[in-house]
Amino acid sequence: MKLFIAVIHNRDKNKVVDDLVRDGYKFTIIGSTGGFLREGNTTFLIGVQEEEKDALMNIIQRNCQVREQVVNVLPPEASQVGSFVPNPVKVPVGGAIVFVLDVEQFARF
Questions:
Q1: CB 41 within 8 Å of CB 61
Q2: What φ, ψ does residue 62 adopt, rounded to 5°?
Q3: What's the chain's average pLDDT?
């Protein structure tokens, strides 16, 4: 058995949830926040059998695409307010980070 821990941008969450439910996966979701942009993410915990790994990875990959977003980045130590005009920067957002772990034991009560 494998445990998937998938961190997915909130914009992609509903598409992933729809496909997981349609295909009969059981999962837990946890709200989380990204570090750099401090935007919302959803962390999925999904347990699957070895033979389901590829199908699950395909669901995540199909529904989670990286896209560019323009943000104004302020320096960590901005002096007086108004003395610094931020330049917009394009950064990649979205997509998914997936960790796959071996599960030593599983029990459902």
A1: no
A2: -65, -30
A3: 84
Query: Which CATH number fits the domain 2-73+85-102, given the four candidates 3.30.70.120, 2.40.50.840, 2.60.120.280, 3.30.450.40?
Result: 3.30.70.120
pLDDT in tens, 19-34: 999 999 999 999 887 6
Q: Which residue has the tokens 């959803």?
A: 42
Nearest to 46 by CA among 25, 22, 19, 21: 25
Predicted confidence (pLDDT) at residue 52 exceeds the cutoff of 80 = yes
pLDDT, tens digit (0-9, with 9 covering 90-100), for 61-85: 999 988 776 766 666 565 565 555 6
Cα 60 to Cα 84: distance, rounded to the nearest angstrom? 40
Distance of alpha carbon 10 from alpha carbon 64, whole angstroms:
10
Q: What is the largest CA-CA distance in the chain?
A: 60
Positive or negative: CA dihedral 103, 107, 108, 109: negative
